[in-house]
Amino acid sequence: MMLRYALRTVRHRKGGFLGAFLALMCAAALVTACGTLLETGLRGTIGTERYAATPVVVSADQNVHRTTVKHKKGKTKTKHKAKPIAERAWLPENLTTRLSRVPGVDRVIPELTFLAAPLTSTGTGTGGRTAYGHAWDSAPLTPYTLTTGTPPRAQDDLVIDRYLADRARLKPGDRLTVQSTQSPRAYRITGIAAPTGDGIRHQTSLFFSTAEARRLAAHPGQVTAIGVVPAEGTDTADLKASVAKALRGTTAQVSTGDERGPVEFLDAAAARIKLVSMGGAMGGTSLLVAVLVVVGTFALSVQQRHRELALLRAIAATSGQIRKLLGREALLVGAAAGVAGALAGLPLGSWLHGRFVALGAVPATLQHTVSVFPLFAAVAATLIGAWAAARISSRRIARIRPAEALAEAAAERGRPAWGRILAGLVLLAGGTVLVAVLSVLRTEPASTPVTFLAVVVLASSVALLGPLLVRAAAAVLGAALRRTGPGGRLATANLRGNATRMASVVTPLTLLIGMTCTVLFVQPTLGHAARAQAREGIRADWVLASEGPGVPAGAARQLRTDRDVATEVVRTTVRVGLDKYAAQGVSTAGLARTWDPDVIAGSLAELTHNTVAVSELAADQLHLKPGSTLKLTLGDGTPATLTVAAVYAKGLGFGDLTMAHDLVARHVDNPLAATVLVSTARSQEELAAAVRKFPGVRVVPPATADSLQAERLQANAEVNYFAMGLVLAFTAIAVVNTLAMSVSERVREFALLRLAGATRRQVLRMLRTEALSVLLLATTLGSGIALAVLTAFSIGMTGSAAPAVTPLVYVTVVAAAGLLALVGTALPGRVALKARPVTVATARE
Description:
Layout: H1 2-12, H2 14-43, E1 56-59, E2 63-72, E3 75-84, E4 91-92, H3 95-100, E5 105-111, E6 114-119, E7 130-135, E8 144-149, E9 157-161, H4 162-168, E10 175-180, E11 185-195, E12 203-208, H5 210-217, E13 222-223, E14 225-230, H6 236-246, E15 253-256, H7 260-264, H8 266-304, H9 306-314, H10 319-359, H11 372-399, H12 402-410, H13 418-438, H14 444-482, H15 486-497, H16 499-537, E16 542-546, H17 553-559, E17 565-576, E18 579-586, H18 591-594, E19 599-602, E20 611-615, H19 616-622, E21 629-633, E22 639-648, H20 651-654, E23 657-660, H21 661-665, E24 675-679, H22 684-690, E25 697-700, H23 702-744, H24 747-755, H25 760-798, H26 807-832, H27 837-844
Parallel strand pairs: 7-12, 9-11, 18-23, 20-22
Antiparallel strand pairs: 1-14, 1-15, 2-3, 4-13, 5-14, 6-7, 6-10, 8-11, 9-12, 10-11, 16-24, 16-25, 17-18, 17-24, 19-22, 20-23, 21-22
Helix pairs in contact: 1-2, 1-10, 2-8, 2-10, 2-11, 2-23, 8-11, 8-14, 8-16, 8-23, 9-12, 10-11, 13-14, 13-25, 14-15, 14-16, 14-25, 15-25, 16-23, 16-25, 16-26, 23-26, 24-27, 25-26
């Protein structure tokens, strides 16, 4: 019975359910898209390229591990956790001898992989592909075979792949400068190699002689991986088991099939975690926003049908029947919206993945993975959200007595229910607690989710307390609005008499402004503080920067004299336990002349190969002070035990840990300096002449180097902007949707105003005044929420209550919200005023 009536209601009130359908469909599309990203991070395939002809690959363990054992109530629980390291871990080369004795092995091929960027007249010439150097001995791994020329034998011989040769128009006999881990060097091209098939799509290979490759790899006695080719008739699975048995007691890992991809593409393997985090954060925030928006949409829909539902109560429909009716209507709309949104979310997820690849947040080697699970999750979330929203929205009308139903439908209730007010106050208190917690969080991974959660919770409190806030705003603005004429007086009366309806419009606008301001100003707040600390701490006269992979050590040596100091800075990430810390290595000679991180304990003069300087934040977290011992894992997985030499205050600008340059450079994939700080009396032209033989190296003032760093930070921030942009777009759609629903409900009201003598222009002016009043309230609330959250974020991350807010950007946000409010009001208002007032009034009687 109720299902049949629900079907008829939905069929005959398509316009009334359209707003809820759109909100639910957008929510389902977002959940599906974020679900595909999450699934890609969890199960995305990383296909192999270089190891295509090598069934078994041996590599070093790319993780740090921690095992904890807990004894509780006579039971022992063992937990094992692993976290990836930042750089490539290396294997002892002597493992090749052990592997060659394994039964079923035909050939063992050691592999060297290292930085090798070709420098052509048009740039690197790689067409966006990453370039790696290898020894020619490892060419059979793919396999690469010579199509022209001879293999490299001398130290200055080089074989390039067909892709690079075609792009840069190179041929045997030409000379090519390569920037590798050492100073750039010109090589003679002796041959061109091509891979079997077309499987190489994401990298360019340069092959050197064995001796030269070992010199450039700079890891004597070590290799990056070992390829194992089975003898004829040997099963790959059996060989894997035999190799694993032979390597027992070492940390080496054995990979076959799709397991070889993560060994080859370390950035793709690391991107899995980032994508899981990004997809989860986007999906979680989208779901919270969707619930908030959908509840408001359903509340407005139920309010529009208040007279109809009151009539059902008056003719003896029970509370349970009303709840069942609304619940089944919601399930019908939710099912249709969920299926449509889930299907629309598939191309949206694919597009999102493509954009993240284009922005550099996700490598192209991590293939987008899609299954039915995100679709099912989106439909389920939509159904549950729709049903819950309907139940919440129907509580009031379902609980009133039948005799009071029609009377209550005639006029809006004077004040919200006490339960709603209490829930709003609880959420307000919860949001306040989140803001307080945010002010003591001092790491970005911990503070970012709390930041956006605080905005949503505070916006939810606005949704519940909205009617009271609208009435308060009407009381404050009433005097000013009445002076604007009849339209202003009508707008004031509507704000007071229809506060619940107006509150349903205030909520999405508040969320839109609050969330947008938070998204736009979180990264600048952090970046501004970091750049300010870096500017204050860099004492150098000039800075060497590179357009390529980095500044070679030879360029720094070229500038060092008895009077001049050149401080190389190389950056990496290390782990203390399982926690990740940004680290850097600096040249220690004359460091005080170029670099001042504001030491508050100890001395940088004690910084050597066996010591480390730590930021104040890291010292607090790890309970360190000068003289303490710090055990850490370097970027390539090498353990190190260092003594704390100093504690400094400017951790945002200079990283959490600082070590000697040579210690860090030996354990990173790219040992080239990110920057070189120069203290000298020489001019910029003299320095430029001294480093002219190093391609791509420029001499710039510290201010220019700071702007280059700002550009890199902005590029990283673009990923976050884009990730949250879809949530904001959904919120903007919800704003227009809610406004249109609110205005379309008032057709009879407009007709009565026209019959009472109001002109069409006066009614539209009244709508504009209402929209501007609602915008003013939403701007005040949204700006207040964003300011509170950003200030707490700034206190926690930078130590000062100084969020970086750009006035022009803020004005643009408010203007965009105002445009949405006016468009969402004016267009439906004009449509509602097209009908003749007499016809409308008669039809609705």
